[in-house]
């Protein structure tokens, strides 16, 4: 097995959002001149400026202008792109999955900053996870915008008014910042591009915002909330208050009062959940959690855990004036900065600072050059608030180049129409085809398993650590299920024996299918038994009696067995089934084994050809027998049976004449109970 690559950081930061990036910047600044390694571990190599994502949906901004490469804004930090799969705070080690071609990376650390953000759980609403669009990443925003333009293009081809209405019905769930801004931007986008679609009437597209509360943007107070409602209604957005989504289907949104909204496109801006890594840490008692968030001191330290810090959406971070900090960028930035300072102070053995920031205010765009804002206790709305929103967030946007690009795009938007190009983002397919030449390596032991493979053409040899062939997978066969159903690590090497074509099924898709279809789960768990490691086979052999280990197949086989000849009829076989009930029977011709007859095959044949048919057995679809030579040593026989996944073998002589049968049970007679 190949040794996993490793890293060590004096300060490791999980998360590439505002809290993680600003923590790294401040720590590097405070520790300048010291040989300290700071590492940022993030699922993406860029930081997303979340407040501007709705403008990507509306076409006001290009996607690349609301993200910043972490490597350029934290040049002195090491950036590792990947997902943290395990985290041991006691040993101070984490494991990172870097992708399909990268072995799992081990990272050790002294100080750890937890800022992975929040997770998403839409499972509480049936159908939401299957049908809803999210608004968390740039990819989400691009996908949503492409879907809206695509609906417009398709509706333009439809002649029936009702069908166009249904296709152009857009529903946004959630009346917080993200929901309000997204609904406003979708309405603005539709209004801006409608004139280019001759066959779509102005009354056919609709945007509906569903909110479980009584007022939008409740954190801004009743005045600004009511103003937001009036603005959205004037723009044409339908507002539904005090109702929750009960279920989502491919064509409808069903509410808890029994009413239904016909819609083909649903955007969900609710459903935050604890990050899986934090859930795991909380479950084992490694960190204290409060409603799924890590409990921290005012200094940013995780309560009761040394050298572990947390900030951002994942942390229950206390405010200076009481209560907990809201999940907004302005608080995450300052929390990260404070923790960066305090980690540096800890290393310099200086006193720590506490979090003093209480917030400057809140802002939200409504669309159509209107916004609402509460800044320093003062409330603003309309064009002034919209100008404030753009000015403040432009200043907060990291990087001078991004500031200039965004400012230019906003200026162009005033004079030029919105872009209606349909640029559909390309997403990974759950199925992919691969070509290998002879000698090409598909995977090596120790690498992460990402796919199940099916062979279309050619052959792939799977070998163990001793170089012995575990399986030669040929056309029509598959492999990879053991690793995907287990710990996700390859335990064997796979190499193309000849020019080969494969179909790769994405690991997540495979697991979903296996979980959903019980027969697939049974099938793959059965075939996974073929891939036994040398030590597993040796353990089985060692548990056998000494006499059995020294024997050959002829010594342990059952000689008196029920068999059939090729010239016997189906009726003869049925009589044999009744006299000697077994699941399979060897079929011979001139004493040589030509196949196995399963009882189920014979009964199916009778059902399809009539109960009185007199067909001979060699006309039936016989199963290819698994044959072994009589002189095969038992240890080799055990390995052969275990790696082929069969429970019994036909023992034959050099001329393939039937001598007997041997089963796994025959071999394990007298073994210790542990086997």
Automatic annotation (TrEMBL):
Residues in CBS domain copies? 557-616, 621-675
Q: Name one Pfam family in it.
A: CBS
Q: Which CDD domains match?
A: CAP_ED (cd00038), CBS_pair_SF (cd02205)
Residues covered by the Cyclic nucleotide-binding domain: 431-514
Coiled coil spans: none
Q: Which Gene3D superfamilies match?
A: 3.50.50.100, CBS-domain, Jelly Rolls
Annotated PROSITE patterns: CBS (PS51371), CNMP_BINDING_3 (PS50042)
For this protein, the Enzyme Commission number is: 1.6.99.3
List GO molecular-function terms, semicolon-separated: NADH dehydrogenase activity
Q: Read off the PANTHER family from this record.
A: NADH DEHYDROGENASE, NADH DEHYDROGENASE-LIKE PROTEIN RV1812C
State the name under which the record lists this protein. NADH dehydrogenase
Q: Which organism is it from?
A: Prosthecobacter dejongeii
